[in-house]
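Researcher: Here's a chain I'd like modeled. Treat it as a single chain, no partners, no ligands.
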Amino acid sequence: MTNQRPPELNKQKKKKNNRIIQNCIVCVLAGGFAFGGTCLGNMLTGNKTQENTNAPSYSSSSKQTATSYTGQINDVSDVAAKCKPSIVEIRTESVTSGNSMFGNYVSQGAGSGVIWTDNGYIVTNNHVIDGASTVSVTTADGQEFPAEIVGADSQTDLAVIKIDATELPVVDIGDSDALEVGDPAIAIGNPLGELGGTVTSGIISALDREITINNETMTLLQTDAAINPGNSGGGLFDGSGKLIGVVNAKTSSEGIEGLGFAIPISGAIDIIDQLMTNGKVTGRPGLNVSLYDYVESGYGFSMNQARYENGVYIVQIVNNGAADKAGLQKMDRIISFDGNEITSSSQVKAILRKHKIGDKVEIVINRNGEEIRTTVTLQELNTTVYEDE
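Model: Modeled as a single isolated chain. Structure tokens:
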């Protein structure tokens, strides 16, 4: 039994859309990478299952596209029979050492995946495999394979893994851009980590929901098809059995059901192809810093409350990166970026997504009580070398 679950979300009002935000504080890279910690409860166990919330040549089948089905269906058995073979179960293990008085411990997780090519490339969520030391895949016909992580992207919560297999049943790619509210939606995945091939059905409840998960803002499909722990990384299909989304989240509020979310497939294809060929997503602009959202009751980060105000702080800087060249320093608090007042690191990353490499962006920071205004020339995102390493 696993307690792997999609990221848990909290609601926040927005002008036209309800923004769902996860109520947690994390240290993140501006431009898209998360720095996370381990839950205290898991630190005190020897072997425990936990949620993984911490994503070469290939078949041309990954390029297939088709217009999504927009009619109504009463019987999903044909869709289920067509799609289930292309959905796999994923299990992970993570070993942590040196962080607990009880020594090493192993945490386990589970999720789902979608067979993308017939030679073994599988798409899932980044949060399913994040931090995993081993990954295994079970196909719909019961075969089990060890898997390697090919690439992952926290900003889109997508990942690609690979198994050594051929002639696999490949998912049929649909067109999420053609969807309308009320269209059929069928989810297939591995709820509870032990019920692989489970099929649930509903409708597309909303399009273009702006959702924040683990401090990453995404635009997702909303569905009322039942989504449960372990469904993450599984497929969301239209009425003709074409993949329209990769399931990645649900609400966790007590008594609330029928609020599930999926990554639209049309916008994910390029990300998936980059992960398959490069192991990462390239060409994104970044400040090349790590940011921390500090609040007075923040957890896991020691700051002098008499000195520091609530806000977004630079806590790491990449050598010769955009921020470094602009003269920014550790513990600078960002007041505004590109003319926008900043209160969270997710705002910085949302602004960065509107720019391209080489753009010059004004930034205002507070350093030891002094307000400093400067211009940053954005570079390609780099997360490898920091000034203190």
